[in-house]
């Protein structure tokens, strides 16, 4: 049986040290490495060792009590959170490392929410109990308050305290408990079920550095995790990581059903590709095998088309990710490479880190990348130097804005230069905030073939669409295809793309547009003497907050503020609280921009001069195409106007 266990934590909680001890105890490695010695087994990239942080999610592989375990060590720094999130999609269970000194920190809460969202059974190891200031009881109180009231601290395995705790949660067990008929096996079975349902969060404490409590903790994890996969079903797997080995693409995936063999052919979209090699990785080491079964994690060669999030064997499914960058930076490069080659290199990095979203700006002839923060940019500079021998710098990161519409409209797009023809009518309606662009179809097949209808949907989702205020992408719009028209002879490939994009833009032109910016959900805690300063700072940052929660010693404030005004606040907060305050920032989606007029003026986007977008339609008369502006397009359409 295969089990995939992820290890997650806030940076510096001791996650990589924990993994090293576990791999050593299970004889997967012969020598324990240390982050500070730059020889940790799973931090095998030079950049990670130099910086002392985990940047890339890597897996160790070991045998334990008849099971094969894949252990995934994930990044703990917020700048590399997308890498961590992608790993969560393939975890059968998760271990969160919490420092007994520092307690629940910002990234811990982010990790917890993602695990809860994906219903991943979770265990907690309270680390660093050997350090001065360690307080396991205080950490357990925080876990109960901030993560889950269903957390239970194990000290001696399933003892009388645990049995009583279980009996309170299960009527059948309660009866056996009162009759003194409850045995360990029954308790274990119920606890295992509660863990799978996330109704029990088992916590234990120890010290990864001193090798205290690690082996005992993992014994409990092993007993309480149950996994079942079917090798008899058709092969299915989720792609969660892409790497390149000397320019050869490695596609990492976890199979959820069936068997995959070398030389098997997989159909992905319209193409068929053959598996040429299967690798099982343990850190940077690997073994080539002829086949893999359901539940295992492996890398394959031979695939060039799948992207991270694809579910092979089920093209209707695709993993969705919540951790998205809120910043954009310009690439500065003055070396000998042609811009096309430089873009190709960035595209390769984008395949490995999809959140980069490499954008080529034709108008300004520049490459832009989406990033989580400045640490990620620093690492990108090192990666490009080490791997491609390229020296680049980046401009100062700018906020990634978005736009949406306030009201509904019907957009009309027509594209009819000589020997081309397509017409599209689409209804645009505001979507709830955070919903993105969605689509429904009300078009009759008598008006447009199903194939043409699908083309229109495809073109709506194949790229971002520029808003009118700043040129940043539009979002939170529901698009309904109403009708359209094709020509039996003259409709060619690309005609419906032109008509669809023009129709979308024409609809947006008709209504009020709203500029959106990214927001943080924050939690700040400090000595209550700082309450006035904290509330004043939030208000100055155009934030909002709930009623402060006061105790005799401290104040805790929950609220929401724009990323633009709060992204650098942690330094200021640490200064006036003398480093004793705690600030947690979590991305909380997009909302109305607090200083929209200033941003629109600053960006100075000219919607009529955008070379990639136009709201005009093209019609044909006397063998010649002519342009009709958006405000006259409706009257010129060929289909009946709704």
Structure keywords:
six-stranded antiparallel β-sheet, alpha+beta, seven-stranded mixed β-sheet, single chain, 34 strands, 18 helices, 642 residues
Give a verbal description of the structure:
- By secondary structure, the protein is α+β, with helices and mostly antiparallel strands.
- The protein is 28% helix and 30% strand.
- Strand 30 and strand 31 (554-562) form a beta hairpin.
- It is globular, with a radius of gyration of 28 Å.
- The model has no long low-confidence stretch (mean pLDDT 89).
Q: Spans with pLDDT under 50 lasting ≥5 residues?
A: none
Number of helical runs?
Answer: 18
Sheet with most strands: strand arrangement: 2-3-1-4-5-7-6
What integer value in Å does the Rg equal? 28 Å
The shape, in one word, is: globular
Largest sheet properties: 7 strands, mixed
Q: What would you call the structural class?
A: alpha+beta
Please bin the fraction of helical residues.
Answer: 25-40%
Average predicted local confidence, pLDDT: 89
Beta-strand percent range:
25-35%
Total E-strand runs:
34
Distance between the termini: 59 Å
């Amino acid at each position: 049986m295969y089990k995939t266990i992820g290890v997650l934590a806030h940076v510096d909680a001791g996650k990589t040290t924990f993994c090293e001890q576990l791999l050593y105890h299970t004889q997967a490695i012969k020598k324990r490495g240390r982050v500070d010695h730059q020889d940790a087994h799973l931090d095998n990239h030079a950049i990670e060792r130099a910086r002392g942080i985990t940047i890339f999610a890597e897996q160790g592989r070991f045998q334990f009590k008849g099971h094969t375990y894949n252990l995934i060590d994930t990044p703990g720094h917020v700048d590399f959170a997308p890498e961590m999130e992608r790993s969560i999609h393939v975890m059968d269970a998760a271990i969160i490392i919490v420092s007994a000194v520092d307690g629940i920190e910002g990234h811990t809460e982010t990790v917890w929410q993602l695990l809860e969202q994906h219903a991943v059974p979770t265990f907690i190891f309270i680390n660093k109990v050997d350090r001065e200031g360690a307080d396991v009881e205080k950490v357990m109180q925080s876990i109960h308050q901030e993560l889950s009231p269903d957390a239970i601290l194990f000290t001696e395995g399933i003892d009388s305290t645990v049995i009583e705790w279980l009996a309170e949660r299960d009527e059948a067990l309660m009866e056996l408990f009162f009759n003194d008929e409850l045995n360990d096996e029954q308790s274990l079975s119920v606890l295992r079920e509660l863990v799978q349902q996330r109704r029990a969060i088992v916590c234990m404490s120890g010290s990864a550095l001193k090798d205290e409590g690690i082996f005992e903790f993992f014994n409990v994890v092993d007993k309480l995790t149950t996994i079942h996969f079917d090798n008899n079903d058709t092969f299915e797997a989720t792609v969660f990581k892409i790497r390149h080995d000397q320019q050869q693409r490695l596609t990492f995936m976890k199979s959820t059903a069936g068997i995959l063999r070398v030389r098997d052919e997989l159909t992905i979209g319209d193409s068929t590709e053959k598996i040429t090699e299967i690798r099982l990785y343990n850190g940077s080491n690997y073994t080539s095998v002829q086949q893999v079964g359901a539940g295992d994690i492996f890398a394959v060669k031979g695939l060039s088309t799948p992207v991270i999030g694809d579910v092979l064997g089920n093209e209707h499914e695709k993993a969705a990710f919540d951790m998205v960058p809120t910043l954009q930076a310009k690439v500065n490069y003055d070396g000998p490479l042609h811009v096309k080659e430089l873009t190709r290199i960035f595209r390769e990095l984008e395949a490995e880190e999809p959140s980069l979203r490499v954008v080529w700006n034709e108008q300004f002839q520049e490459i832009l990348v989406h990033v989580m923060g400045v640490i990620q940019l620093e690492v990108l500079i090192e990666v490009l130097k080490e791997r491609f021998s390229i020296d680049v710098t980046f401009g100062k990161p700018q906020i990634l804005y978005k736009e949406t519409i306030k009201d509904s409209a019907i957009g009309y797009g027509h594209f009819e230069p000589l020997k081309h023809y397509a017409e599209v009518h689409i209804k645009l309606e505001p979507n709830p905030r955070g919903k993105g662009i969605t689509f429904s179809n009300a078009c009759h097949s008598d008006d447009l073939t199903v194939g043409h209808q699908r083309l229109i949907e495809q073109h709506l989702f194949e790229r971002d669409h520029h808003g009118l205020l700043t040129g940043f992408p539009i979002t939170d719009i529901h698009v309904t295809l109403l009708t359209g028209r094709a020509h039996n002879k003259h409709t060619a490939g690309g005609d419906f793309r032109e008509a669809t994009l023009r129709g979308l833009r024409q609809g947006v032109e008709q209504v009020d547009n709203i500029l959106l910016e990214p927001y943080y959900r924050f939690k700040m805690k400090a000595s209550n003497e700082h309450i006035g300063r904290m509330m004043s700072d939030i208000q100055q940052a155009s934030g909002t907050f709930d009623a402060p929660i006061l105790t005799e010693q401290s104040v805790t404030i929950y609220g929401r503020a724009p990323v633009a005004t709060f992204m650098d606040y942690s330094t200021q907060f640490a200064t006036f609280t003398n480093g004793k305050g705690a600030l947690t920032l979590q991305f909380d989606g997009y909302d109305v921009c607090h200083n929209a007029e200033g941003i629109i003026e600053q960006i100075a986007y000219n919607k009529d001069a955008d070379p990639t977008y136009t709201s005009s339609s093209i019609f044909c008369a006397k063998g010649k195409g002519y342009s009709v502006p958006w405000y006259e397009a409706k009257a010129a359409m060929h289909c009946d106007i709704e």
